[in-house]
Amino acid sequence: MQIREDSFKGDRPPCPKRGPNCKNKPHCNGHYLRYANPDESEPSLKMFCFWCVPCRVSISVIPVNHLPYWSIEVDPLAQYFDLQSSGDIDSLDFSQNTLLRAKGAWKRFCSRSSQFVQILGQLIAPLTPSIPDIWMSISRLEKSFSALLNRLAYDYRISLLGDYPRLFGSILPT
Ligand SMILES: [Zn+2]
Predict the structure, then answer these.
(1) How does pLDDT run across 69-101, given as a tens digit for each residue?
(2) Measured in angstroms, how far is the CA atom of residue 163 from the centroid of ligand 1?
């Protein structure tokens, strides 16, 4: 299970399971490397892993500027989404690899648009929103993209790109 670094305070993530003998003190048992962005030739991003012994749960911590399972950083993704919505996508100066990931992420977001409308309801304007309308309404919820990811996950129990089950295991829906 993965959790975002800015979604908890202190030096270790909380145990998501909290079983009968859990003291809520998962210990760090190392790290693995992941691609920080699609242009890296070798993975360089350290993902620290924690283990709760009584619950037998492993937790990986995702650094603030990154997404679970997507090797694109948060800033270019936010920029791409904003430009997709404002119709000025040609002004982007992304590498081919970053552009491919951003396009894939946008496609995923589009496929989830009706879920956002259902969950966020009146927060999304107008009444029959286009996908850019949906994104613009969602993006206004928080000042930073990272804060937005946390807000969606913890307040609305939905992830931007459908990674919620992988973020939270089977504990919570969608
Ligand atoms: Zn535990």
Answers:
(1) 888 999 999 999 999 998 788 888 899 999 999
(2) 22
Domain residue ranges of the chain, discontinuous segments joined by +: 2-68, 70-156
Q: pTM surpassing 0.90?
A: no
- Ligand 1 geometric centre to CA of 45 (Å): 26
Q: What is the Å distance from ligand 1's center to 151 Cα?
A: 24
If you measure from the C-alpha of residue 25 to the centroid of ligand 1, how many angstroms do you get, rounded to a whole number? 7
CB 47 within 8 A of CB 13: no
The answer for residues whose C-beta is within 8 angstroms of residue 31's C-beta and 6 or more apart is 46, 47, 48, 49
| 173: nearest Cα among 152, 161, 155, 158 | 158
Quote the ligand 1 centre to 52 CA distance (angstroms). 5
